Each structure stands twice: as C-alpha cells, then as structure tokens.
C-alpha cells in the first residue's frame, strides 16, 4: 500500500512539473492518473481541480514575476468562463462525449502549432471582445463538465491567433486555469463529498514539482523549447482524454 501511494504521488509530481512549465495546472493528467489507479469517477473531478488550483497558482506567480502577464490577454475570456465553469460543474452527465471532442480539438491545435514557423511572433493583437466572450463561455462550460481549468485549450488559441507570445500565453493560461478551477470546484461543492486524508501529501508533492517546473518554464526554457514542451503536453492530454 505504501509503494502504491508513493507511486501515485510521484506520478502527480511528474504531471505537475511538466504542466506547470507551460503555465498549466495539470488537471487532464491528474484525471487520467486517477482513472488508472481506480479512483471513483465521481471523486476525480474534485481532486483534479484542487491540485489544479495549487499548481496553476504557483505557475501564475512564476510567470507574473518574470514579467509575462498581460491582463488584457485573458480578462475578456474570464468574464464568461468563470460563471460557465460553475454551471458546467453542476452537470451530472457522462462526460465521455465532451472528452472525445476536447481530445480532437487538442490534436487539431497541436497540429497547427507544430506547422507554424519556429520563430516567435514579434507582433500580437488584442482578442476581439465578442469573440473572446464566446470562446470563454465554451471553454468554461467544457472545463466545468470535465473537471479541468481550460488553459490547455486557451494556450493554443492565444498563440495561433497571435493574441499573445508563448510565455504571455502561459501566464494568461495559468490565471485562467486558477479562476476556472475555483469556480468549477465551487459548483461541485453543491453536492456532498468527503476528501481522502492523503490529499495533503498530494498537495505538498505537486507544490514542490510546480515550483520547480514553473521556475524553469518562466525563466530558463527558450520560447522554441517551451513551444515544443507545450506541444508534447497537448498531445499527451489528448491521448489521455481518448483512452482514459
């Protein structure tokens, strides 16, 4: 049992490390890992969102302190995504169809990202308000239903549409994930649930991994290498959504 728990925590830490390096919280990874370890389907969204909150907060602080946060890159999306995430989290439906759609969208996003030139965009544009509101609504709803923060979809949108540079997108996504995870968790709290006492060890583990990963991502990794890491994360997340 001890080895089982240790292996699980190591898995959480690896997920937190790689996801935090690109400004993400790791919810899609946590969901897949918990499914593999036999967690009850009705509990994994709670745990994934709690860990998401911790890691995305750490990632945001790292990218903010490194000077990559631009509020106008993310606020229009948050206006609609936050309430939508709360509503989505209250849905008690089978998320399989949504997971498949999300996986397809991720594959399309990463394919386009890999086909884009390796050079970083030197010029960006602000997202149109109405379009951002619509995208935020969809991402928030899907995030709440599945139990993720939504940043794993927001990042490629910001980059491919040239709304943000890669590290700016990471900073924006971290805040997006944190607030939507908090909203989704609030929606889930409308139903009764009891937490496992071991969650304190999970939180401590992802905190350490998130601190290291986000520090490396925000200050050490080049824009090109960060793009490669983000692509790998997106591919891994899509595979997990398809098969777990």
Describe this structure in words.
The chain has 244 residues and is mainly alpha-helical. The chain contains ten helices and no strands. The protein is globular and about 50 Å long.
Throw out a few tags for this protein.
75% helix, 0% strand, 10 helices, single chain, 244 residues, mainly alpha
Our Rg estimate from Cα atoms comes to 16 Å
Briefly note the structural class of the backbone.
Answer: mainly alpha
Number of domains: 1
Major sheet summary line = none
Global shape: globular
Low-confidence stretches: none
Instruction: Note the beta-strand portion.
Output: under 5%
What is the percent of helical residues?
A: over 70%
DSSP, total strands: 0
Summed over residues and divided by their number, the pLDDT gives a mean of 84
Per DSSP, the total helix count is 10
Whole-Å distance between the termini? 23 Å
Spell the H/E element sequence: HHHHHHHHHH
Short description:
By secondary structure, the chain is mainly alpha-helical. 75% of the residues lie in helices and 0% in strands.
Give the SSE map.
Layout: H1 2-20, H2 27-36, H3 41-65, H4 75-89, H5 96-115, H6 129-146, H7 151-160, H8 166-188, H9 199-219, H10 223-243
């Amino acid at each position: 049992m001890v080895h089982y728990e240790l292996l699980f925590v190591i898995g959480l830490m690896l997920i937190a490390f790689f996801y935090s390096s690109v400004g993400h919280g790791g919810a899609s990874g946590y969901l897949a890992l918990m499914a593999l370890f036999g967690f009850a389907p009705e509990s994994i969204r709670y745990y994934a969102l709690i860990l998401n909150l911790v890691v995305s907060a750490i990632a945001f602080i790292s990218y903010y302190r490194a000077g990559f946060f631009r509020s106008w890159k993310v606020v229009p999306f948050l206006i609609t995504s936050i309430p939508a995430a709360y509503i989505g989290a209250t849905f008690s439906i089978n998320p399989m169809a949504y997971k498949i759609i999300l996986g397809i969208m991720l594959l399309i996003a990463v394919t386009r990202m890999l086909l884009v030139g390796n050079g970083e965009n030197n010029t960006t544009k602000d997202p149109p308000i109405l379009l951002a509101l619509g995208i935020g609504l969809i991402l928030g709803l899907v995030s709440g239903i599945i139990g993720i923060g939504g940043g794993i979809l927001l990042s490629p949108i910001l980059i491919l549409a040239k709304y943000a540079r890669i590290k700016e997108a990471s900073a924006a996504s971290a805040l997006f994930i944190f607030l939507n995870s908090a909203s989704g968790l609030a929606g889930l709290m409308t139903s009764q649930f009891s937490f496992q006492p071991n969650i304190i060890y999970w939180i401590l583990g992802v905190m350490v991994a998130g601190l290291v990963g986000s520090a490396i991502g925000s200050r050490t990794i080049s824009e090109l290498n960060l793009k490669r890491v983000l692509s790998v994360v997106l591919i891994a997340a899509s595979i997990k959504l398809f098969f777990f």
